[in-house]
Amino acid sequence: MMRRTALAVAGLVLTLTACSSGQQTNENRSGQTGFVSGNGRVSTFAAADRKPAPAFGGETLDGKQWNFADHKGKVVVLNVWGSWCPPCRKEAPDLIAASKELGPDVQFIGLNTRDLDKAPAKKFVQEFGVTFPSLFDPSGKQLLGFRGQISPTSIPSTLVIDKDGKVASRVIGEVTTQTLVGMVKDAS
């Protein structure tokens, strides 16, 4: 009886793990519960195959309002991160460098998720000198709007949204400066 119960539980765990992300075969589970650390592979979408990014926006970590609709006609780079995420810490300098290299014609926006308090997220921003705004999304509600484009458990993730508001490319996992600059240039 106990053996059957243990086998049933193991089967359920395997099923739930396999369903946690459409990217699961290309990603590795990290030690942190509740997120998947990707392999950094870039997915690029042909213009005809691009899907619209959802309407998103809200309050930033510094208390200002930011809305995607206000940046129509610009390439937007969305980076999903959490202060508790080791790969997010590793990629932060590359995001900052890419933002500086690409300049004001490209709008960078962070999406801070699952930090239940702004303090750790603000400390992360200060520690790394992040110059672009980040939306505060403690419940993951904003992130859920991207379901089908990125998994809510794939943190970090970076999307490049073209001037028409469609997702041109994505990276599940850490992104490098060179890769991100190339993604943006391909989307322009």
Automatic annotation (TrEMBL):
It comes from the Bacteria. One of its GO terms (cellular component) is cell envelope. It is found in: Cell envelope. Residues 1-20 form the signal peptide. Keywords: Cytochrome c-type biogenesis, Disulfide bond, Isomerase, Redox-active center, Signal, Signal-anchor, Transmembrane. Its main location: other. This is Thiol-disulfide isomerase/thioredoxin.
